[in-house]
Amino acid sequence: MSLPLASEPSISAAAAPAFAVSPWSGGDASRAVPGHDRWHPEIPAVAEVLTGGSIRMECQAREPGADPVLCGPVVVVGAEPGDVIVVDVIGVGRSDGVYAPNGHPGVIGCAPDAAMLTAAAAAEQDRKPAAEPDADVWRLDTGAPKMLLGHVEEGTAAYRRIAAEAVSSEARGRQIGGCGIAPLTAGSRVLLPVHVRGAKLSVGDLHFPVRGADDCRLAARSGWIDLRVHLTRRGVERFRVNGPMLMPAPSPLAGR
Q1: CB-count exposure of residue 250 (10 Å: 0-12, 13-18, 19+)
Q2: Helix H segments across 128-249?
Q3: Closest C-alpha among 3, 100, 108, 98 to residue 48
């Protein structure tokens, strides 16, 4: 299935790591897109998917101590606030081809609305010490952007405004899903409430624990994740899905 991809505004190649987004079936539609390490409803989408459609996200590794870098956002066509998207994890794999049956995303979620963003920003501010205003937006040693905001162009007023309002994954807590709650390996499902038009689904920070170990606290590896997405109208009201509902698959290593 061919996925219509969002238009690509001007952006410096050094602004963010390159990710690939493509239909799950593969083919020539894959292309590199910039990642993001903050959440904000105005970070532009990089692709669209119809309900029932599948998509592959190829995610880069995370540097030790850095914030998770996510692939997306992906618009779910027709999704509106109050809907729910049902996301099935079809498969997760390492870029180097090494077999890793317990691969799973460290972070998966939909973009926050303004109220959620404000609440998360307040919680984040309470946890960190006071800093100079520019320290949150720019690396003072190199002048390079500290925050990765996808297709938001560096040096613009929009970049500075969004960077000042955006929040990290940690600040969103239980607003999003991830391995801090339960590992979503292949065969898992997660229900995510929609907060903004199009849902704007993002995922990343892939982990690949070895047998008998839990390495989710270590830096994520590069890899790919295949997702299938279904849209449920008014799912928040109909099914009382007020936050992420994670349905992890049984571990393939269980009982060995």
Answers
A1: exposed
A2: 157-165, 169-172, 235-239
A3: 3
Q: Where are the domains of the chain?
A: 18-247
Q: The whole model's pTM is what?
A: 0.83
Residue 37 backbone phi and psi in degrees, to 5: -120, 20
**Which fold, 18-247?**
Jelly Rolls (2.60.120)
Q: Is pLDDT at 81 greater than 70 in this prediction?
A: yes
Q: How far is CA 200 from CA 58, 95, 110, 137, in A?
A: 17, 25, 5, 23
Encode pLDDT of 53-65 as tens digits: 999 999 988 877 7
pLDDT in tens, 140-176: 344 445 789 999 998 899 999 999 999 988 789 889 9
Token readout for 146 is 């500290």
Closest alpha carbon to 59 in 112, 107, 25, 121: 107
Alpha helices in 50-190 (DSSP H): 114-127, 157-165, 169-172
